């Protein structure tokens, strides 16, 4: 079985965001595999171990993404492809076109990704890529079983669980609970250094920047106002609770009809 | 030139969702003089009832598409239904709620239309005749404003953030047009749906969220939270710590991984307030923290805090609310 994992490198979720000259400051911050993509990598490696085949990682992003790809190789993926080109705009419409251009020649049986990235959080790229490829998808899966030419998945739909059967080739996006991603082992890290790692540009894909003009653009980037610490309600628990309820009644009621 | 805005009014279990009215509200913010708003209702049943309700909201046309294939969401069935409305309306903008369904469906429609998409929009303004869309980055640690460089355009809006549309008596009732379901070949088959949330309210749409952390100590520890949520018509959420410890399902997780919620009232019980959790709830209107540890970071963002054991405080709180609500 030929498995491709779509992977993005993101800031660690423990990082605080600071801005520098209209951009998110990347100095001294820790980057990780997007946590949802990490589930996808783990699932791909397990499926390969069970059914045979190969796991290829695919990413479109800046050069620093190589580190995340190395980590995923150390987790057990077989090969990595990084499409890195400054002319790829930060827009899901454009990025999915780039990935599609690579994948259309790949004929993967199974494509896995995360249900969204914890940075931009658009949740578009994987689903758009499946649509461009003309293959079915199921989003936010918490269980995946492959047998014969199809997969049975459990989907998380706002807390409800849907059991869906999907014929392969197909694309699935991982939700929390799909598995427990492994930490790369030392031998895994050593082996990862020797695994095939390919860098591609738009020219290598035969794509011209005109074909991937962004459909959206950023007009402003800002931090939300910091919340200030409020009041600690002191005294006996019963009194504190009584005060809280009366505060809430005056705070909430007049405004619920506003707007 | 007139624009056509097409609103997907999402239904759940035969009823219009609140987010459907908010999506319509978003379209009204975007519509300028001479523009037309059309609505599409696609579901397994009851679209006529929903259309009758929505016809008072001033849209030009409401399309209804009903078929048993639309009883449960599959991308193929829903995309075919929405495409039918898209062919009919030729919209320049299509709007969805950023719900489990809308989040999955919108990129399919955007991709099929060759459209750009701005997801998870929390507010909309018009600048120089163009829509400017505010949306969170890093789950709300930062925000951006985005605009479209091309048409058509697809937008998903975050529940609970954009004011719901109101009925408009000054306008004619909408024309209601039934569209034929195009009967696509369905590649995926929904074999079973396990309703884990029957009777409860979806987290992302809830006005009140009662959330538990490691401090709840066990699955049973969520009971006092559930009781208060039930009384107030709210939803129960959790921190990553509580999910990782196996006290609850990951579907409840609030944070940068998990869900982002923006309720009127957020009550954090036994949650220390790690940065990745704060990202998921800091935009709530009023935050209340209950925690034994007076140094817990959650108190730094809470409007009101009570230092104490949640198992002492919550039952008192439920009792007090019950008193004042009666």
From TrEMBL, chain A:
The keyword Acyltransferase does not apply. It holds the Pfam family ETF. Residues 21-209 form the Electron transfer flavoprotein alpha/beta-subunit N-terminal domain. GO terms for cellular component: cytosol. Signal peptide: none annotated. One of its GO terms (molecular function) is electron transfer activity. Keywords: Electron transport, Transport. Belongs to the ETF beta-subunit/FixA family. Heterodimer of an alpha and a beta subunit. This is Electron transfer flavoprotein subunit beta.
From TrEMBL, chain B:
It holds the Pfam family ETF_alpha. GO terms for biological process: fatty acid beta-oxidation using acyl-CoA dehydrogenase. One of its GO terms (molecular function) is flavin adenine dinucleotide binding. It comes from the Bacteria. Residues 5-192 form the Electron transfer flavoprotein alpha/beta-subunit N-terminal domain. Its cofactor is FAD. FAD binds at residues 214, 239-240, 253-257, 270-277, 291. Binds 1 FAD per dimer. InterPro entries: DHS-like_NAD/FAD-binding_dom, ETF_a/b_N, ETF_a/FixB, ETF_alpha_N, ETF_asu_C, ETF_asu_C_CS, Rossmann-like_a/b/a_fold. Signal peptide: none annotated. Keywords: Electron transport, FAD, Flavoprotein, Transport. Belongs to the ETF alpha-subunit/FixB family. This is Electron transfer flavoprotein subunit alpha/FixB family protein. It comes from Paenibacillus lemnae.
């Amino acid at each position: 079985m030929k498995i491709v994992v779509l992977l993005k490198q993101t800031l660690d979720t423990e990082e605080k965001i600071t801005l520098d000259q209209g951009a998110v400051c990347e100095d001294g911050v820790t980057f990780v595999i997007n946590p949802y993509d990490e589930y996808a990598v783990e699932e791909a490696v397990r499926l390969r171990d069970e059914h045979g085949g190969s796991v290829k990682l695919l990413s479109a992003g800046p050069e620093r993404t190589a580190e995340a790809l190395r980590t995923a190789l150390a987790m057990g993926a077989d090969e990595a492809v990084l499409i890195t080109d400054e002319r790829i705009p930060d827009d899901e419409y454009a990025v999915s076109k780039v990935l599609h251009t690579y994948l259309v020649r790949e004929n993967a049986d199974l494509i896995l990704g995360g249900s969204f990235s914890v940075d931009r959080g658009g949740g578009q790229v994987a689903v758009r890529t499946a649509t461009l490829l003309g293959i079915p998808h199921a989003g936010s899966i918490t269980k995946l079983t492959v047998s014969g030419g199809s997969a049975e998945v459990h989907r998380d739909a706002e807390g409800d669980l849907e059991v869906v059967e999907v014929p392969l080739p197909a694309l699935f996006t991982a939700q929390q609970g799909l598995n427990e991603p492994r930490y790369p082992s030392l031998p895994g890290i050593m082996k990862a250094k020797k695994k095939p790692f390919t860098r591609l540009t738009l020219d290598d894909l035969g794509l011209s920047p005109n074909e991937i003009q962004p459909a959206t653009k950023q007009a402003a980037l800002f931090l939300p106002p910091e919340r200030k610490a409020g009041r600690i309600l002191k005294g006996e628990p019963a009194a504190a609770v009584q005060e809280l309820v009366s505060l809430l009644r005056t705070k909430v009621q007049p405004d619920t009809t506003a707007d | 030139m007139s624009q056509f805005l097409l609103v997907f009014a999402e239904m759940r279990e035969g009823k219009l969702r609140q987010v459907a009215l908010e999506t319509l509200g978003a379209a009204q913010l975007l519509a300028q003089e001479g523009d037309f708003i059309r609505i599409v209702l696609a579901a397994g049943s009851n679209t006529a009832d929903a259309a009758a309700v929505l016809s008072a909201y001033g849209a030009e046309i409401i399309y209804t598409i009903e078929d048993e294939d639309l009883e449960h969401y599959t991308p193929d069935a829903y995309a075919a239904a929405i495409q039918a409305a898209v062919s009919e309306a030729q919209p320049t903008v299509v709007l969805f709620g950023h719900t489990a369904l809308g989040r999955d469906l919108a990129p399919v429609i955007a991709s099929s239309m060759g459209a750009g998409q701005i997801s998870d929009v929390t507010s909309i303004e018009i600048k120089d005749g163009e829509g400017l869309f505010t949306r969170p980055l890093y789950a709300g640690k930062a925000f951006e404003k985005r605009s479209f460089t091309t048409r058509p355009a697809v937008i998903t809006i975050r529940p609970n953030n954009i004011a719901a549309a109101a009925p408009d008596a000054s306008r004619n009732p909408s024309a209601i047009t039934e569209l034929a379901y195009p009967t696509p070949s369905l590649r995926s088959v929904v074999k079973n749906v396990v309703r884990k949330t029957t009777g409860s309210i979806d987290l992302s749409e809830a006005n009140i969220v009662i959330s538990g952390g490691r401090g709840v100590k066990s699955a049973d520890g969520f009971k006092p939270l559930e009781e208060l949520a039930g009384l107030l018509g709210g939803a129960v959420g959790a921190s990553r710590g509580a999910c990782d410890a196996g006290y609850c399902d990951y579907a409840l997780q609030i944070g940068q991984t998990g869900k982002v919620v923006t309720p009127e009232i957020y009550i954090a019980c036994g949650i220390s307030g790690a940065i990745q959790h704060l990202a998921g709830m800091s935009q709530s209107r009023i935050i209340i923290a209950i925690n034994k540890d007076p140094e817990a970071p959650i108190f730094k963002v809470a409007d009101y805090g009570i230092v104490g054991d949640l198992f002492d405080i919550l039952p008192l709180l439920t009792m007090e609310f019950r008193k004042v609500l009666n």
